[in-house]
Specification:
Elements: H1 4-12, E1 25-28, H2 31-40, E2 45-48, H3 63-71, E3 74-77, H4 87-94, E4 106-108, H5 144-158, H6 163-188, E5 195-198, H7 204-210, E6 213-217, H8 228-235, E7 243-249, H9 255-264, E8 268-271, H10 284-297, H11 300-303
Parallel strand pairs: 1-2, 1-3, 3-4, 5-6, 5-7, 7-8
InterPro entries: Bact_metal-bind_prot9, ZnuA-like
Keywords: Signal
Signal peptide: 1-22
């Protein structure tokens, strides 16, 4: 809450004047970065390359995205090799010299975070492993403020005439984020020590922050589709008895989770891995709140307050 006086001062001095910035074009690789950048520059033009129903690892560099990238003032992406399969080709075809590696117009969120589980050595036998670490940092309550601050600073530097407004909006965002984070921390007390079956590590940062064990994975290796043999190994895993539910993202194939659920009667939680157009999950704060709501609903003893 230490940012509240700054925000109030910004309002009183007329910093939040909401000037039109329709001439500024933002290209976001994932919906979470559209939502965050729009918080700071709500009147800019936005193009989002992916949706919550798509796997951000695998996107086609289609003509509409090339055109959007060619006119973008800034591209906001995750980095840490998440978009390695399609972003380099998109940047090359767009031919926008302001949005290239090392230029201010290319912003990687992962550059402003401490990633979990980096690897000194990566080869194909390990599956879809990122050497920099888990790139799905947008669901990290502790990491997002650093990323948001860095993004606000970058936008302000690119539009100095609008920097005061951007900073004021960042302060407002940070106050709101701190409020939500305090609520999440209180609710996490009842979730600590519980366990889930997951598919991939998309929710990994949030689950670790909540104290939930998510070491049982439907994928035999990161990025590899669940196989019958691996699912049978999971079924024989004694830890499975303690798992409260099976958690998968909206873009993932539900059949492996459905098979395991049929064998164990564990509920399946299908949740968006990023923000959506639904008002319940259209910002990162609302998304995290909804994920926690659904986790609590899958654990009746938590929801009923008996723990």
């Amino acid at each position: 809450m230490r940012y509240l006086p700054l925000f109030i001062a910004a309002v009183l001095t007329g910093l939040i004047s909401l000037p039109a910035r329709a001439d500024f074009h933002v290209f976001a690789c994932e919906p979470e970065w559209t939502a965050l950048a729009r918080t700071f520059m709500p009147d800019a033009h936005f193009t989002t390359a992916t949706s919550y129903l798509q796997d951000p690892h695998y996107i086609e560099a289609r003509p509409s995205l090339i055109a959007a990238m060619s006119r973008a003032d800034i591209a906001v992406c995750t980095g840490a090799s998440l978009e390695a399969g399609w972003l380099p080709a998109l940047l090359q075809r767009a031919g926008n010299t302001d949005i290239q590696p090392g230029q201010p117009g290319l912003f990687f969120a992962a550059d402003h975070a401490q990633l979990f589980a980096p690897h000194d050595h990566v080869d194909r036998s390990m599956g879809d492993v990122h050497p920099e670490g888990n790139p799905h940092v947008h669901l990290s309550p502790d990491q997002l403020p650093n990323i948001a601050k860095a993004l606000a600073e970058r936008l302000g530097a690119m539009r100095p005439d609008n920097s005061a407004d951007i900073f004021a909006r960042y302060i407002k965002w940070r106050v709101n984020w701190n409020f939500h984070s305090a609520n999440w921390q209180e609710r996490a007390k009842a979730l600590q020590g519980r366990s889930l079956v997951i598919q991939h590590t998309g929710f990994g940062y949030l689950l670790r922050w909540l104290g939930i064990d998510a070491t049982m994975d439907l994928e035999p290796k990161p990025g590899l589709p669940p196989s019958a043999s691996h699912l049978n190994q999971l079924l024989a895993d004694p830890r499975l008895e303690d798992a409260a539910a099976i958690l998968i993202a909206s873009h993932q194939n539900q059949k492996p989770a459905q098979w395991l659920s049929a064998q164990t009667r564990k509920p399946i939680l299908v949740l968006p891995g990023t923000v959506t157009d639904d008002s319940k999950t259209d910002t990162l704060a609302e998304l995290i709140s909804e994920i926690i709501n659904r986790l609590e609903s899958a654990m009746p003893e938590v929801a009923n307050g008996s723990l």
